[in-house]
Structure formats: structure tokens, C-alpha cells
Write a structure and sequence with these properties.
Shape: rod-shaped
CATH class of the largest domain: Mainly Beta
Largest sheet: 6 strands, antiparallel
Distance between the termini: 184 Å
Number of domains: 2
CATH topology of the largest domain: Immunoglobulin-like
Strand order of the largest sheet: 9-8-7-4-5-10
Strand content: 25-35%
Structural class: alpha+beta
CATH architecture of the largest domain: Sandwich
Order of helices and strands: HEEEEEEHEEEHE
Number of helices: 3
């Protein structure tokens, strides 16, 4: 006769061993460290005190930040004002210097010595041509140096078209410490070979060519050079002898090569 279990009689409980498992026992050896935090809620009084402290700290920080910004603004504005004032000072100084320079330049231009070449004059009897230097400025000039070359040209059959060639030449220098305003200084060139009948037919031509160099009367200004060139020209129809300008820049090199400038000063040379 078989035995039946009662309903519910076979109910198994954890750990009773009836499910094939056994209670497990765990053992821990060694040091065990337990860490954690304990949170303590502040009392209402403490919370109010903390809030008041934090609020005071925030107000202090805001005030500190405001002062930092204000200080930066003031320093920036001061720096800008200083820069503007400095720029204005430099600009004013430059303007004053420019005005002074302009006034100085204007005085120089209006008052300086201006030396030019006047109208030449030929004295046939003395066989001399006079070339006047004229100072049209308001003050006396500084030192003046003049170089003058004189050449006599005559008809030369060996030259094509019967043009005139040099037959006599010489060069001289003149020096003057100053040239007063309105007082002409005549340079003179002597032509020993001058023959009036030949001049009146154009068979003989007299030429002076050279330059003047002078100081305009103001200290530390560069010297000024003025070239000049004149020659006689006879008009057959009018039967008139005139002194006509010529091109100094074009002829001066040939003339210097002819008379040996800067050697041979005052040495009259002739064609053989």
C-alpha cells in the first residue's frame, strides 16, 4: 500500500536542504575597511546663517568685480586721453616746425641774391666785350666765381660751306667776395684779333662762353651755377651787328677741349 503525501506537505523552504541546496557560509579573513558619508541636515537656524553668509560673499564678489571693471575703464580712458594729448602735442610741434620752415623758406626765396647775366656790350675800339653780372635780389650775394672763354672765329675755306673756324682763344677766371644788389659787375673778354670790317661782313665772329657760380647770401645754402653763351651776328640786309645768345650746354665741352681748361689760364692761343 502506497503512501501519498498530503497536499502541501511536500512544500520546500529555502535553506531546508530539500531543494538540493545548502546554506552557504561565507567567511572573510583579513582587515575590512568600511567607508561612507554621514549627511547631517542643518537646522533651520543654521541654514539661514549659511544663506546669509553666502549672500554676503556674493555681494562682495559682485562689488569686487564692479570695482575691477571701473578701474579698467578709468585706466583705459586715461591711457586714451594721454595718447590723444601726446599726439596733439606732436602734431602741434610738427605744425609749428612746419610753419617756421615755411616762413624761413619764404624769407629765403624773397630776400636771397639772384645773379643773372645782363645784356653784353661790344667796344670795337677797345676790342673788348663786356658781360655784366646783375644781382636782382634784396641782399648782397656771397662769393662769386666766373669762368669766361673767349674765341675768335673766322671764315675757313677748309671747312665745308665756308663756315667759321677758331683762330684765337683764351680763358680767364674772375673772383668777387660779394655782389651788391643793383650794382652790375662787368666781366670783360678781350679779342686782340678783332677786325671791324670782317665783323661787318660776318667773316669774323666773336664768342664768349662760360658760367658763374655764387652763394645766394644765406649761410649753408648750396652754390648756384649759371651758364652763359653769346656770339656776334651780322645781318647783311639791315647792316647791323648784334650780340646773340648761343647754347652753352652744347658748346662748352668743345671750347674747354680747345683751350685746355682748367690749364692754360690767361694764355692766348692762336691757330698756326
Amino acid at each position: 500500500m502506497s503512501k501519498h503525501s498530503k497536499p502541501g506537505g511536500g512544500k520546500q523552504h529555502p535553506g531546508d536542504g530539500n531543494d538540493g541546496t545548502h546554506d552557504q557560509k561565507r567567511s572573510v579573513s583579513g582587515n575590512v575597511h568600511v567607508r561612507g558619508e554621514i549627511l547631517v541636515e542643518p537646522t533651520p537656524k543654521e541654514a539661514l546663517a549659511r544663506e546669509a553668509t553666502e549672500s554676503k560673499h556674493d555681494a562682495h564678489e559682485r562689488k569686487k568685480l564692479w570695482w575691477e571693471k571701473a578701474t579698467f575703464y578709468v585706466v583705459t580712458v586715461y591711457a586714451l586721453l594721454t595718447a590723444v594729448i601726446s599726439w596733439q602735442s606732436v602734431r602741434s610741434a610738427n605744425a609749428a616746425k612746419s610753419a617756421a620752415d615755411t616762413a624761413k623758406d619764404a624769407l629765403h626765396v624773397s630776400e636771397r641774391a639772384y645773379i643773372s647775366i645782363g645784356i653784353p656790350h661790344l667796344d670795337v675800339e677797345k676790342k673788348t666785350m663786356y658781360v655784366p653780372l646783375v644781382n636782382s635780389g634784396h641782399i648782397p650775394s656771397g662769393p662769386v666765381t666766373a669762368i669766361i672763354h673767349e674765341i675768335t672765329l673766322e671764315a675757313d675755306p677748309s671747312i665745308p660751306k665756308g663756315e667759321n673756324g677758331p683762330v684765337e682763344w683764351e680763358w680767364e677766371s674772375f673772383h668777387q667776395n660779394r655782389l651788391d644788389s643793383g650794382v652790375p659787375l662787368p666781366l670783360h673778354a678781350v679779342f686782340p684779333r678783332l677786325y671791324e670790317p670782317s665783323l661787318d661782313t660776318g667773316e669774323q665772329v666773336l664768342m664768349v662762353i662760360g658760367s658763374i657760380e655764387y652763394n645766394d647770401g644765406f649761410a649753408d645754402t648750396p652754390k648756384i651755377s649759371v651758364p652763359f653763351c653769346f656770339k656776334t651776328l651780322y645781318f647783311t640786309a639791315q647792316k647791323e651787328l648784334i650780340i646773340d645768345p648761343c647754347n652753352a650746354d652744347e658748346l662748352i665741352g668743345k671750347v674747354k677741349a680747345l683751350d685746355g681748361y682748367p690749364q692754360n689760364e690767361g694764355k692766348l692761343q692762336t691757330k698756326h
